Amino acid sequence: MPATTRTTTPALSLAGVTKTYGAVRALTDVSLDVLPGRVHALLGENGAGKSTLMGVASGSVQPDHGDISVDGEQVPVLTADAATRLGIAIVHQHPAVLPDMTVAENIRVAVPAGRMSTGGSTRAWMADLLRTVGSTVRLHDRVDGLGVAQKQLLEVAKAVALEPKVLILDEPTAPLGADQTEMLFEQVRKATARGCAVVYITHRMAEVRRIADEVTVLRDGSVRGTSRVADIDDDALLRMIIGRELAAAFPAKHPPSDDAPEVLDVTGLSGEGFHDASMSVRRGEIVGLAGIVGNGQSEFLRALAGLVRSTGRITLDGRPIAGRALVDATAYMPADRHAEALMTTMSVRENAAVSALPALATAGVVDRVRERAAVDEEVRRLAVKTASIDTDVMALSGGNQQKVVLARALLAGPKILLADEPTQGVDVGARAEIYQIMRDVAASGVPVVVVSSDAKELEGLCDRVVVFSRGHVVGELDGDEVTEENITSTVVGAVTLRRQESGPAAESGGGSRLRRLAKGDYAPSVVLALVILALGAYTFAHNTRYLAPFNVSSVLALLSALAFISMGQTVVIMTGGIDLSLGPLAGLLVVIASFFLVDGATAGTIVLALVIMIVVAAASGLLNGVLVRYGGFTSVAATLTLYIGLQGVSLLLRPFQAGFISTGITDLITATTGSVPLAFIAAVVVAVGLELALRLTPWGRGLRAVGSHEDSARRLGVKVNRAHVLAYVVAGLLTFLGALLLMAQIGVGDATQGVSYTLSSITAVVLGGASLLGGRGSFIGTLLGAALIQQVLNATTFLDLGQSWQYFFQGFLILVAAAVYTQARLRSRRAT
C-alpha cells in the first residue's frame, strides 16, 4: 500500500509493555512500532493479549511496566481522555456505544464540537459521516434499537470523524457484510493516505493480505514475530499464531445420502424481516444461510428457534411444531454472545448448564453432582480452556466463550442446532475447533443451520447453502455448487434485483415518526399531560371548587417542593443509582432552619442559616457519592445508611415540633402572582433549564452516558467517578430548594415531615419515564410526574375519598409506570 508520509519516527511506539491481572500475565515485555501512513496488522488467538495491548495504547488499560510514545514523545501516563487529545482513536471489538442515547447524541459525546463545524448544518455533517462508512441508520434512531453491524459502523464513524494520528481497529469487520467491509477498507486507505497510522486487529488472514503493510503476531502475551506482509506466507503466520501446524481450516464434509430422512421442513414462513421463505434440512446435514447482513436470514433463524412470531408451517421429524415446543426442540446460538448468550456475571458451569437444568433436577431440585459431571464432560469434549468450570465466564477468551455457548446448546439435547455467525470474533485456531465440533454434531444426527456473512466459511463448512435477499429466498446451492464464487454471485445478483425493486415507497418509512415518538423520552410526558387534564376535568365535573384560585395556588405550592426534590432524584437515577436519603435530608434542612429563621432573625443570621443548609445538602450528596464510587457501597446501601443517620440527627435536634419559622420569610417564599406561586414558576424554569442542559451540554450528555453504559462512557473519555459524585451533590442542592418550600409550608421544625418525599420523588421520576437502570429520563417528565402525584392527593379530597385512597393511588401509579416502561423496553429489544 503506498504511503504519503515517509518517516522513521513511529506515530505510536510501545516498548517493554507488561500487564498482569492477579496471577495471570496478559502481556510480557511487548514492543510494537506503528509508522505513519501504514497499516500494521496485529494477529493472535483469543487471549493472546491483542485487546489488552490496544487498551494500553488507547489509555483504557494502565500497564504495570513499559513506555508509550506518540510521535516520538514519551507519555508518562496515558488515559482515555489523554489518548483522544493526542490523536489516538479506537474502534473496539465490542462497540463503545451508549444504548439509551440516539445516534446523533452518541456522535456528539465522542466527537468534539469543533470537528463537526464545516460551515453547514451539524446534523447534515453527521448524516454524511454515517453514509461514508456505509451506515443506513437515522440520526434520531436510539442505539439500543440498532443491529450489531450498525452499532459497529457507528463506532467506525466516530473514530473516522476524529481524523486521528493513530487509528486502532479491533476486529472491525466481524459483524459486517461484504459491501460494508469494502467501505471500511476505503476509509482505512483514505486515513493512511493522509498519514494516519492504523493498527488492524483481525482473525482473517485474507484481510491482512488486502489491507496491511506489516504484521505482528502475539501468542500467550508475547510477541512471536514481526514482518512485512509481502515477506511472509500464510503457513508461517499460522505457525506463529497457534504454535503448531494446522492440518486444515475446515473438516472433511460427509454429506448425507439422498435417502437420509428429512428432519426439518419449512414452508412459506413469514415474519418481521423475511417473507414466504421455504427450506429443508436432512439428518447429518449442515445448511448455511447466506446474504448481505440485514436481508432477513438472521430473523429467519430466530423464527426457526421460536424466538419471534411467524406465520407458515414448520415441521420437525414429520410433525408440525410451533411456540414453546419449537424453543424446547432447538438450540440457538446468537451472533452477539455478550448481549444475548452469556450471563456475564456467572461461571462457566452456570452458563453451560442453564438450559439443561430441568434434565439435571430431581423433584425440582438440581443435582449438583450430576450438573458438574455433565458440564465437566462437555467442557472436556469441546476443549474449553478454563482453569475450572467455576471460573467467571468473562475471564475466558472469545473463542472459549463461544464454546461455552455451544456447550449449553449441546447439553440441552436439541433436535436441531441453529447458529448465527458462530465464529464471529473467534481466532483461527478456535474457529477450526468450532467447525469440527459442528461437523461432529451433524454426524451424530443433529442437523445444523448456520448464518454467516463469510462466503468462504459457508463454502468450507456447509453441505448446502440457501441465499436470502430482501427477506426472500433467492437461490439454493447444493454439493459441488457450494463455492465462494457461486455464493457471492448469487448474493450479488440478488442485490441487483433488490436495488431495482427499491423506490420511494421503500424508503419512506411511513408510520415510523409515531413509533419513534412512542419510544422517545417525551412519550411519558405526553401521556402524563393527558392524564392530568383528564383527571382535572373529571374532578371539576364532580366538584366545581376544584379549580378555585385558593386550591390551585395550594396545589402548585405543594407541587413545587416535591418537584425540586424529584428533580434531584432524577439526576441520580440518570446515572443508574438511587438516593433514598433525599426525604430525610429535606427534613433535616427544615429542622436546621427552625433554629435560625425565626422571628427577629437578622440578615446575617438568615445568610448563615442558608449557608449551613447548603453545606449540609452538598456534604450529604458528596458523602453518598464517595460511598458509592470509592467505598464499594451500592447506591441503596449507601443512601439507606445516610437515610437512617440524617433522620436520627433530625430527631436528636427536634424530638418534637418546635422553632416556628418567621412569617416574613414564609410569606416571601410563598409569594404568588395571581393564583400561581412564584416558587412554581421557579420550578418550571429550573426543570426546563436542566432539560436543556441534559440534552445540549457536556455535563448532561456525560450524565446520560454514564447511566447508559458506564464502560463505554469511560472509553469515550467521560470522567465516570466525577459524574456519579457530582450527581449526588446536585441532588442534595436541589433538595435544599425543595426544603425551603417545605419549610414555608409547614412553618415549624418537624423531623418527620420530609420522610415521605423519598418514595414520592422516586414515584415522580418513574412516572416521568426515567429508567431505573439509568441513561434515560426527562426533567419535564419528572415535573409532570410530581404534578400528577399532587393532583391525585388533592383530587381524593374533592371526590370525598379517604386518606387510604391516597396511598393506594400512589402505589397504583408507580406500579403502572414501572409496568408500562418494562413492556416498552421488552418490545424494543424484541424488535432489534
From TrEMBL:
CDD domains xref list: ABC_Carb_Monos_I (cd03216), ABC_Carb_Monos_II (cd03215), TM_PBP1_transp_AraH_like (cd06579)
Domain ABC transporter: 12-245, 258-495
Any one GO molecular-function label of the UniProt entry: ATP binding
Membrane topology: Multi-pass membrane protein
Name used for this protein in its record: ATP-binding cassette domain-containing protein
Locations listed in the record: Cell membrane
Primary localization: membrane
Listed transmembrane segments: 522-540, 546-565, 577-597, 603-623, 630-653, 673-694, 725-748, 754-773, 780-799, 805-824
Key words of the record: ATP-binding, Cell membrane, Membrane, Nucleotide-binding, Repeat, Transmembrane, Transmembrane helix, Transport
This protein's record includes keyword Nucleotide-binding: yes
Species of the source: Pseudonocardia xinjiangensis
